[in-house]
Design a protein that fits this description.
single chain; 127 residues; elongated; mainly alpha
Length: 127
Protein backbone atom coordinates (compact mmCIF):
# COMPACT_ATOMS: atom_id res chain seq x y z
CA UNK A 1 0.00 0.00 0.00
CA UNK A 2 1.35 3.39 -0.96
CA UNK A 3 1.56 6.02 1.76
CA UNK A 4 1.83 9.48 0.29
CA UNK A 5 3.70 12.00 2.46
CA UNK A 6 2.01 15.21 3.55
CA UNK A 7 4.33 17.86 2.11
CA UNK A 8 4.01 18.82 -1.59
CA UNK A 9 7.67 18.18 -2.42
CA UNK A 10 7.52 14.79 -0.73
CA UNK A 11 4.33 14.01 -2.66
CA UNK A 12 6.02 14.92 -5.94
CA UNK A 13 9.05 12.77 -5.04
CA UNK A 14 6.82 9.83 -4.08
CA UNK A 15 4.82 10.12 -7.31
CA UNK A 16 8.03 10.40 -9.33
CA UNK A 17 9.34 7.23 -7.69
CA UNK A 18 5.98 5.52 -8.28
CA UNK A 19 6.11 6.57 -11.95
CA UNK A 20 9.58 5.01 -12.34
CA UNK A 21 8.27 1.75 -10.87
CA UNK A 22 5.26 1.87 -13.21
CA UNK A 23 7.48 2.46 -16.24
CA UNK A 24 9.23 -0.80 -15.43
CA UNK A 25 5.95 -2.66 -14.89
CA UNK A 26 3.48 -0.98 -17.22
CA UNK A 27 3.11 -1.32 -20.94
CA UNK A 28 4.19 1.30 -23.46
CA UNK A 29 0.92 3.22 -22.96
CA UNK A 30 2.43 4.94 -19.94
CA UNK A 31 4.91 6.99 -21.96
CA UNK A 32 2.01 8.50 -23.95
CA UNK A 33 0.04 9.63 -20.89
CA UNK A 34 -0.82 13.33 -20.87
CA UNK A 35 -0.52 13.44 -17.07
CA UNK A 36 3.24 12.90 -17.32
CA UNK A 37 3.44 16.56 -18.32
CA UNK A 38 1.16 17.85 -15.55
CA UNK A 39 1.67 18.49 -11.87
CA UNK A 40 1.48 15.24 -9.92
CA UNK A 41 -0.42 16.99 -7.12
CA UNK A 42 -3.39 17.33 -9.44
CA UNK A 43 -3.90 13.55 -9.46
CA UNK A 44 -3.16 12.71 -5.82
CA UNK A 45 -4.78 14.22 -2.74
CA UNK A 46 -2.75 16.04 -0.14
CA UNK A 47 -3.34 15.05 3.47
CA UNK A 48 -6.49 16.51 5.06
CA UNK A 49 -7.69 18.13 1.84
CA UNK A 50 -11.07 19.89 2.27
CA UNK A 51 -13.91 18.27 0.35
CA UNK A 52 -14.54 21.25 -1.95
CA UNK A 53 -10.84 21.45 -2.83
CA UNK A 54 -10.70 17.68 -3.46
CA UNK A 55 -13.71 17.77 -5.77
CA UNK A 56 -12.27 20.72 -7.70
CA UNK A 57 -8.86 19.05 -8.01
CA UNK A 58 -10.40 15.75 -9.12
CA UNK A 59 -12.47 17.49 -11.79
CA UNK A 60 -9.36 19.26 -13.08
CA UNK A 61 -7.52 15.91 -13.18
CA UNK A 62 -10.43 14.32 -15.04
CA UNK A 63 -10.28 17.09 -17.64
CA UNK A 64 -6.63 16.19 -18.24
CA UNK A 65 -7.59 12.52 -18.51
CA UNK A 66 -10.38 13.32 -20.97
CA UNK A 67 -7.87 14.57 -23.52
CA UNK A 68 -5.40 11.72 -22.97
CA UNK A 69 -4.87 9.25 -25.83
CA UNK A 70 -4.23 6.37 -23.41
CA UNK A 71 -7.06 7.00 -20.94
CA UNK A 72 -8.60 3.55 -21.43
CA UNK A 73 -5.27 1.76 -20.93
CA UNK A 74 -4.58 3.85 -17.83
CA UNK A 75 -8.01 3.07 -16.40
CA UNK A 76 -7.60 -0.65 -16.98
CA UNK A 77 -4.15 -0.55 -15.37
CA UNK A 78 -5.64 1.12 -12.30
CA UNK A 79 -8.45 -1.43 -12.14
CA UNK A 80 -6.19 -4.46 -12.57
CA UNK A 81 -3.50 -3.36 -10.09
CA UNK A 82 -5.68 -2.04 -8.29
CA UNK A 83 -4.38 1.46 -7.66
CA UNK A 84 -5.72 2.60 -4.26
CA UNK A 85 -5.09 6.33 -4.64
CA UNK A 86 -5.45 9.15 -7.11
CA UNK A 87 -7.24 9.82 -10.37
CA UNK A 88 -6.38 7.23 -13.03
CA UNK A 89 -8.01 6.97 -16.42
CA UNK A 90 -10.53 9.63 -15.49
CA UNK A 91 -11.76 7.80 -12.38
CA UNK A 92 -11.17 8.49 -8.70
CA UNK A 93 -10.33 5.67 -6.30
CA UNK A 94 -13.95 5.59 -5.12
CA UNK A 95 -15.25 5.43 -8.70
CA UNK A 96 -12.83 2.60 -9.46
CA UNK A 97 -14.13 0.66 -6.45
CA UNK A 98 -17.66 0.97 -7.88
CA UNK A 99 -16.50 -0.26 -11.31
CA UNK A 100 -14.70 -3.21 -9.71
CA UNK A 101 -17.77 -4.12 -7.63
CA UNK A 102 -19.95 -4.03 -10.76
CA UNK A 103 -17.45 -6.21 -12.63
CA UNK A 104 -17.38 -8.74 -9.78
CA UNK A 105 -21.19 -8.80 -9.69
CA UNK A 106 -21.41 -9.21 -13.47
CA UNK A 107 -18.81 -12.00 -13.44
CA UNK A 108 -20.69 -13.80 -10.66
CA UNK A 109 -23.94 -13.51 -12.63
CA UNK A 110 -22.25 -14.85 -15.77
CA UNK A 111 -20.78 -17.79 -13.84
CA UNK A 112 -24.18 -18.51 -12.33
CA UNK A 113 -25.88 -18.33 -15.74
CA UNK A 114 -23.24 -20.65 -17.25
CA UNK A 115 -23.68 -23.06 -14.36
CA UNK A 116 -27.47 -23.02 -14.75
CA UNK A 117 -27.14 -23.56 -18.48
CA UNK A 118 -24.79 -26.50 -17.96
CA UNK A 119 -27.23 -28.02 -15.45
CA UNK A 120 -30.11 -27.61 -17.90
CA UNK A 121 -28.06 -29.25 -20.66
CA UNK A 122 -27.24 -32.23 -18.40
CA UNK A 123 -30.90 -32.63 -17.41
CA UNK A 124 -32.01 -32.42 -21.06
CA UNK A 125 -29.38 -34.96 -22.12
CA UNK A 126 -30.42 -37.34 -19.33
CA UNK A 127 -34.14 -36.94 -20.04
Amino acid sequence: MLHLPQKPLQVAAAVSQQNRVREDQAGPWHSEAVCRRDEAGLFFAPSKEPTAARLSREEAAKRVCARCPVMVECREHALVQPEPYGVWGGLTAAERRVVLARRRRRDAELRQAASSSASSDRIAAAG
